[in-house]
Amino acid sequence: MSASGPLRAQAARVLAQVLAGRSLKAVLGPAEARIADPRDRGLLHAIVLAGVRGAIRYRALLAMLLQKPLPARAAPVEAALVAAFAQIETLQLPAHAVVAETVAAIRALRLEAFAGLGNAVLRRWLRERDALAARLDDNEQAFWRHPQWLIDALRHDWPGDWQRILEAGNAEAPMWLRVNRRLGSRDDCLARLQAAGLPATAHPQLPDALRMDPPQPVTKLPGFAEGRFSVQDASAQYAAQLLDPQAGQRVLDACAAPGGKTSHLLERRPDVASVLALDSDPSRLARIGENLERLQLRDTNVELRSGDAGDPSGWWDGRPFDRILLDAPCSATGIGRRQPDVRLHRRADDIADLSRQQARLLDALWPLLAPGGRLLYAVCSVLRAESEAVLTPFLARHPEARVLPLAVERARRMEGGVAQCLPEPEGGDGFAYALLVRD
Length: 439
Ligand SMILES: C[S@@+](CC[C@H](N)C(=O)[O-])C[C@H]1O[C@@H](n2cnc3c(N)ncnc32)[C@H](O)[C@@H]1O
Description:
The chain is an alpha/beta fold. The chain contains 17 helices and 13 strands. It has helices at about 5-20, 25-35, 40-65, 75-90, 95-110, 115-125, 130-135, 140-145, 150-155, 160-170, 185-195, 240-245, 260-270, 280-295, 340-345, 350-365, 390-395; strands at about 175-180, 200, 210, 230, 250-255, 275-280, 300-305, 320-325, 370-380, 400-405, 410-415, 420, 430-439. Helix 1 runs antiparallel to helix 2 (about 25-35). The longest helix is centred in the first third of the chain and has 28 residues, at about 40-65. It is globular and about 70 Å long. The termini are far apart. The model is unreliable at about 1-5 (pLDDT under 50). Bound molecules: S-adenosylmethionine. S-adenosylmethionine binds next to helix 13 and strand 6. Keywords: Cytoplasm, Methyltransferase, RNA-binding, rRNA processing, S-adenosyl-L-methionine, Transferase.
């Protein structure tokens, strides 16, 4: 067995679990934590991400190369082959080494009976690569590496941009930091990073945002453990700025876990009267606590609670809020480059369910807003079904709700007061915002 055979075997195991329906985040983090060498860890990460992003294409390729589908017990072999295609085609690793490592991985997975088949499949692909690529590219899903329902929805919603959105979903995500200005200025943070030989660029419109070029493992960045910054996408950093709570106000963060936006609100305005950080998932609620701890925000007036935002009778004390953030559960189609497994796991029918759920949460939270108060609706989605189609009927049902204009760089203005960010190669993710005021 070659030295890195086991690494490819680990990558195949992780990928097989994602292909079987498990969340990428849930399986990749623990697998990375078991690898001591940072270079091996980085390679595992790159192989799994490229495999998940390319899974639709590479499964179609595999179907062309196999006479009959692999049996269920050979799922890790399928994953090892998908990973091999991704390593050669996407990561551009040397083909002969990848073939040898993949065959070694299949043996290490105790699926020796498939080692010869794996070798033959990869060698045939390398011989017939151009002809097979031409056939693959005729298949729209294989070409765009996204499911047909999502390609169709994006083409419908964004006739001039859908290809750009799909390309963004297949690319590496930029890394954005959010500086905790309670503990030091953005310039200080930039200077520390530069002194450590880690180049970063300030965002032109977001006062806390820095882009790391190239992305780095967070543990390599000076100041992370002391809470000097967080990793948070640029588009997500608009939430605290748009909601703009003032000193002494009561704030509700209705879908708060893991606390990215709760902590940003508190970093900017530790002098609010209170922030209630609510989430329906108690295990995710614990993550908010850990983030507040690291960011040294435990001394602020924040309360963590588990509860259904759609049923305030279970957790509301009856006193209105001046600011409400509804960062609603959504399709995550705006962050496909960060969570590429979403395209494998979501189904077309989920979108209508999510849209109904978003409308339910909005209707339930609206009465909790004080007169003159503001509610910010946010989703990391690029589908109109989760933005315009939620807001427009809501506004028709609630004449006392008025939309406020939003200053969001490069965002599209849409119906229902929505500002839509599309994913940008060196910018933020796809995100939709709408800010409502209660007259
Ligand atoms: C988009 S995430 C929130 C991200 C978070 N605001 C941040 O910035 O870190 C949506 C969250 O909504 C929670 N959620 C889903 N349905 C909910 C409900 N009915 N009530 C409260 N929280 C809910 C999920 O558990 C999930 O943590």
